[in-house]
């Protein structure tokens, strides 16, 4: 994911799913919940991910093999 308007980007890990919600671990040391829609539509600037350093632009996902 990328901070809106900035590079190079940042990695996160989806650690759980509950219905349409995803728990996301940020290696900066915290986790938060977002809906699948928020994740897919780059609307992650809410809840735990809100603030001046929010990462709102999801550009890809890698699934384990």
Characterise this structure:
By secondary structure, this protein is mostly beta strands. Helix content is 8%, strand content 35%. The protein has one helix and five strands. It has one helix spanning 36-40; strands at 2-3, 13-18, 21-26, 30-35, 55-57. The strands form two sheets. A three-stranded antiparallel sheet has the order 2-3-4. β3 (21-26) and β4 (30-35) form a beta hairpin. The chain is globular, with a radius of gyration of 11 Å. The two termini are 21 Å apart. 14% of the residues are buried. The model has no long low-confidence stretch (mean pLDDT 76).
Summarize the structure.
The protein has 1 helix and 5 strands; from the N terminus they run ββββαβ. The protein is mainly beta.
Features:
single chain; mainly beta; 3-stranded antiparallel sheet; 8% helix
Our measurement of the CA-to-CA distance between the termini, rounded to an integer number of angstroms, reads 21 Å
The largest beta-sheet arranges its strands as 2-3-4
The beta-strand count equals 5
Which secondary-structure class do the elements indicate? mainly beta
Largest sheet: 3 strands, antiparallel
């Amino acid at each position: 994911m990328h901070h809106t308007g900035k590079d190079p980007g940042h990695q996160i890990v989806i650690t759980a799913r509950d219905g349409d919600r995803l728990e996301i671990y940020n290696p900066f040391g915290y986790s938060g919940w977002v809906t699948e829609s928020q994740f897919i539509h780059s609307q992650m600037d809410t809840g735990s991910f809100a603030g001046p350093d929010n990462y709102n632009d999801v550009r890809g996902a890698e699934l384990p093999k």
